Amino acid sequence: xxxxxxxxxxxxxxxxxxxxxxxxxxxxxxxxxxxxxxxxxxxxxxxxxxxxxxxxxxxxxxxxxxxxxxxxxxxxxxxxxxxxxxxxxxxxxxxxxxxxxxxxxxxxxxxxxxxxxxxxxxxxxxxxxxxxxxxxxxxxxxxxxxxxxxxxxxxxxxxxxxxxxxxxxxxxxxxxxxxxxxxxxxxxxxxxxxxxxxxxxxxxxxxxxxxxxxxxxxxxxxxxxxxxxxxxxxxxxxxxxxxxxxxxxxxxxxxxxxxxxxxxxxxxxxxxxxxxxxxxxxxxxxxxxxxxxxxxxxxxxxxxxxxxxxxxxxxxxxxxxxxxxxxxxxxxxxxxxxxxxxxxxxxxxxxxxxxxxxxxxxxxxxxxxxxxxxxxxxxxxxxxxxxxxxxxxxxxxxxxxxxxxxxxxxxxxxxxxxxxxxxxxxxxxxxxxxxxxxxxxxxxxxxxxxxxxxxxxxxxxxxxxxxxxxxxxxxxxxxxxxxxxxxxxxxxxxxxxxxxxxxxxxxxxxxxxxxxxxxxxxxxxxxxxxxxxxxxxxxxxxxxxxxxxxxxxxxxxxxxxxxxxxxxxxxxxxxxxxxxxxxxxxxxxxxxxxxxxxxxxxxxxxxxxxxxxxxxxxxxxxxxxxxxxxxxxxxxxxxxxxxxxxxxxxxxxxxxxxxxxxxxxxxxxxxxxxxxxxxxxxxxxxxxxxxxxxxxxxxxxxxxxxxxxxxxxxxxxxxxxxxxxxxxxxxxxxxxxxxxxxxxxxxxxxxxxxxxxxxxxxxxxxxxxxxxxxxxxxxxxxxxxxxxxxxxxxxxxxxxxxxxxxxxxxxxxxxxxxxxxxxxxxxxxxxxxxxxxxxxxxxxxxxxxxxxxxxxxxxxxxxxxxxxxxxxxxxxxxxxxxxxxxxxxxxxxxxxxxxxxxxxxxxxxxxxxxxxxxxxxxxxxxxxxxxxx
Length: 933
Hints:
This protein is of the alpha/beta class. The strands form four sheets. It has an eight-stranded mixed sheet with strand order 4-3-5-2-6-7-1-8, sandwiched between helices. A seven-stranded mixed sheet has the order 10-9-17-14-11-13-12, with helices on both faces. Strands 18, 19, 20, 21, 22 and 23 form a six-stranded antiparallel sheet that branches. α18 (454-462) packs across α27 (763-769), α21 runs antiparallel to α24 (679-697) and α27 (763-769) packs across α28. Its main location: nucleus. Residues 30-186 form the Helicase ATP-binding domain. Keywords: ATP-binding, Helicase, Hydrolase, Nucleotide-binding, Nucleus. One of its GO terms (biological process) is RNA catabolic process. InterPro entries: Beta-barrel_MTR4 (IPR025696), DEAD/DEAH_box_helicase_dom (IPR011545), Helicase_ATP-bd (IPR014001), Helicase_C-like (IPR001650), MTR4-like_stalk (IPR048392), P-loop_NTPase (IPR027417), RNA-DNA_Helicase (IPR050699), SKI2-like (IPR016438).
């Protein structure tokens, strides 16, 4: 894969000369290119990877070859087109909605466009000598990563590659895959060297200064870190309150963060450490923090004039109406003070003008979400993290070392700064190992996110000589799977050895006893289903009542509060969450303490009288149906549980109750208190008592070694389950991955008429091939069942918006009767498709699949098609302007795809209708040209 055939010098007249001396890694990469061999350049942000890409382009043009430069985002493609156009004359751009100079020697495009070109064939792909993949680590993206794999596999073997990536630990594995797939060498040029070293600081909440915790030699300063944590601990109740407030969405925490941000910004600017990027983890936080700095002004009068000139020149392409939009009109107030925001909710033209102003040094402080850390050439001197935690959809977690490296990499401008500063704001205790791993850990590995989709299968079935199986076989996912097989086989032997080593005294009797216990546990769960229904249990969920929150008989806590948390899903029954104060020990995954939204599997429950250094009273959210029993005892509960002393006092009260009732804390009687009058329930209680009696009389129950025997049995059972799973994994790894899934998906295509019984792609399948960015099956059904023909052009656009929009929104316009009827028909089509998938044994929840099609944009799109101004449609929703623009652009893109699909099958009338719809949508600020073009 890598070899050294002696130093190969760059030719006397290199393809491109630079005004500076190349770094070693750049020099090595250029040597590989001149040798006509592929290269993977894996280096930190701002290390200078672009130099290698530029040399490859210059070399291809010199040698009369065409070169493709792919990027993950349209915005990045636009910016890259502008940069390359200044460097090389013969450059074109293809991003789906924009095509400039498609016959150019160097074509900049999104990876999706490259994949489409490969499926369709054409002159361009026959002339390409080099393909440059920028940000190749995007391949691990769960939704879009598969596009990278498809395009790499589908490219001809004679094409050579330049892969540009952030540092990835498994670069060798990726390069080996490319070697195997295309039968050519792929060299790795990997450097951990950072031209501008970083210093990492912690700013403790309510603190007055920063602590250096990792110096530019990457040495972790334990004593400084402990000092910072001490400052947080001294904040005591305030810090605990902030943690609780984060879970409950209160404003108290935000106010404290805003004050701390003000301190940091003042310190950074006073010491000339700007420009600074402040990373927040949601759009609203970015806006609120920027707007809270209303006293900060970092620009002189000349800079203010220059900002105004650049800004309003950029806005010249907008209509007077659009210039009055709140986002457009209000932003200059922020920018003129040297502040900016950058997130997906901004109008695209505003994002671009902010990028230009930041690159020109006119924005000193930029509040951004983490998406800005991908690709855009926007280095700063200082990076600030407003929190070490982020919400990932399930709960708050520490940011990973990979995420930290990606974002902190923006600090330190090459050639301008002697060092970059990274400041991590902390408002709660973090253990030193967690901090070391975050600051000094590895980048995230490049793991395949390959998955099958219907358009991919149909496209491959349509191309002569191509088969879905061959693409799967050549995928990085299959490669990683095959490499894992020897390890899986070794694991089977190891688990088997460990299982056989577990010896259980009187194993048969212990096994019999455990079966009784399993039966008892199942019946107790059955009992809970009845006792914990809202009708019976809710009247007794008062604060202060003792309760057993889980499986453990000995563990008691007390109810703090409860709330209705939903309609109970498909059953339609109400679901409740109960907040229980209980002594716990935090698991090693570092989850948020004192969070009423926490899942209790993050913690080990302890007895009220059991205490050690790692235990703490915490409020844990427990679903009502998981509560074991409710006690008839209630104790005093203070109003404020934020102080640790208050929680300790409550747990002491629980311990005192346990001591007073040595025979067991009294519980509510099912018949007398909970009013459960059921013969079956009475029988269940008798069976539970019967099994408990049998367990007491069982010979093993009196064994002095019972705890040891049960522990050994549990260990052996766990190992047996692990062994079964390991054998299953090894069996799956031994063959083609996704074989069953492919078989099921082919069956769905056959049933819905996309392919014939012999596997030949039919007319409906040819339509689905053209639909790359929406649900191919449902969209094809809408074409062929005549629904698109029946509705008028405006309603057609509204209907397409349901295929595009997947997010939930709290505040959207109510559907009119006509719109609701159209949406209902769409759901019927989706339900039909979902049932076919389920009948073909695919793991799909039909109702969940149907709910994936959303109506939030329908009325908005109808208003847009009727000619309403953008300001008017923004009054109909609480969504960000940028989100609406992105959605309308995607609707227009899908309309173009649908027009192409109708052209393919000769459906001219419908083709014309989609074209008219596309033209109707394409107007005003939503489709204003990029400033980079």
